[in-house]
DNA sequence: TTCTGTGAACGGATTCACAGCA
DNA sequence: TGCTGTGAATCCGTTCACAGAA
């Protein structure tokens, strides 16, 4: 029963959490769904409905206590702990991922890096020693890794993901430009800047072809902008 | 009139194009909506409906000619040309973006890089000389840049995007973890691996709390898997 | 008043189902 | 027989609108 929460809702929660964290750091204590919606281009009703799946966090007439709501969201999303991740593929992209400073402050840590290349295995990249992919299963158990990051060429992504999945990983951040097959209980998120670009070019092209009505286009649902 | 094509459809087209390109390279000549759907976890009906917004590209009883359909999609998306991009923010992330090998083969080229730091301006990064952001407007016109890439800290993203927009850029790839405000006729795509991770942790956490029904969860629409 | 929480109404994307062509 | 193209039906997320608490 209960909890069949739409996936889109889950995708928006981290956005709320991020924004609330920034507001908290700026010293603000309370926010209304209207004001939060203004910042995120989301309607106030949407935000209230999303939150209502998880409980009643607001006060009528006032809004939401930022600190309180943030803590609730972190609890819901599991952000009040550290998550260990294993990276596969220590090429140029993989190295950039290891060096990316955005993960650690949010509690995500790359604790192991794997590759197949004999030249790479054994070498040090930042704080990690590159391991052979044969050791993946053992290391994942040993270091309680929950998340895999795939940064290998598209042609090898599926096999790498098979190894991750058979080692028990349930969440994969996939930088390889392919849609992969995974069991029902494994989540994959694709990070692909090229796909993002290729959908934007459609709109640039269209606007150039018919410049007159450029602004008529429907955008994502129009946010009720605050005052 | 006409063309109010849902944005989700446009987001799927590059996926189709990518897959068709791989099939073409593998020598396959024809594909059915059923087979293509199997590779992408998309229902055959969805694919046929998506394509029907743009024309009739298939042959009943046979399927789609891969080369032909790919060319059509490239035409529709504007992928049959080069696109010039300007990068703002030459920190660690910015440098990784400049060095990323995935853009060029798809016709996307970073032709200028900007920063505000006096230490960086004038230095060379790969094939580019870092320019002061004050030169952005002029360079964008000069080099016919259509796309901006933002790789600055969240706190500066909005102002950088304001500059890009006022220089005429209509598409922005935003690596900064903030939702920014842009005019109706400007497209923004966020690239944020942390948000992607933070929504997956929800499911990992949930599965651990109620392991019994882990596999019961509804996934994204179940694809009718091929044979 | 102000703003939340929520059932009901709505709207739009997905899926169905079938006519029709190869 | 096989598979496309597409109106119709369905499903599901979004928005509405209002009761009710502060």
Could you walk me through the main structural features you see in this protein, from its secondary elements to its overall organization?
The first copy, chain A, has 227 residues and is of the alpha/beta class. Chain A has 3 domains: 2-77, Winged helix-like DNA-binding domain superfamily/Winged helix DNA-binding domain (Arc Repressor Mutant, subunit A); 83-191, Rossmann fold (3-Layer(aba) Sandwich); 194-227. Helices cover 41% and strands 18% of the residues of chain A. Chain A is built from 8 helices and 10 strands. Chain A has a 7-stranded mixed sheet with strand order 6-7-5-4-8-9-10, with helices on both faces. The first copy, chain A, has a 3-stranded antiparallel sheet with strand order 1-3-2. In chain A, helix 1 packs across helix 4 (66-77) and helix 2 (33-40) packs across helix 3 (44-52). Chain A is globular. The model of chain A is unreliable at 214-227 (pLDDT under 50).
CATH class bucket of the largest domain in chain A: Alpha Beta
The most extensive contact between chains is: A-B, 66 and 66 residues
Total helical elements of chain A = 8
The protein's oligomeric status is homodimer
Largest sheet descriptor of chain A: 7 strands, mixed
Share of helix among residues of chain A? 40-55%
Number of beta strands of chain A = 10
Number of domains of chain A: 3
Structural class of chain A: alpha/beta
Q: Assess the beta-strand content of chain A as a share of residues.
A: 15-25%
Note the run of SSEs of chain A as H and E: HEHHEEHEHEEEHEHEEH
Quick check: average pLDDT of chain A?
93
- The CATH topology of the largest domain in chain A: Rossmann fold
Would you identify the CATH architecture of the largest domain in chain A? 3-Layer(aba) Sandwich
Q: Which regions of chain A have little confidence, pLDDT < 50, spanning 5+ residues? A: 214-227
- From the N-terminal CA to the C-terminal CA of chain A, the straight-line distance is 41 Å
Radius of gyration of chain A: 21 Å
Strands of the biggest beta sheet of chain A: in what spatial order?
Answer: 6-7-5-4-8-9-10
Shape estimate of chain A: globular
- State the fourth-level CATH superfamily of the largest domain in chain A: NAD(P)-binding Rossmann-like Domain
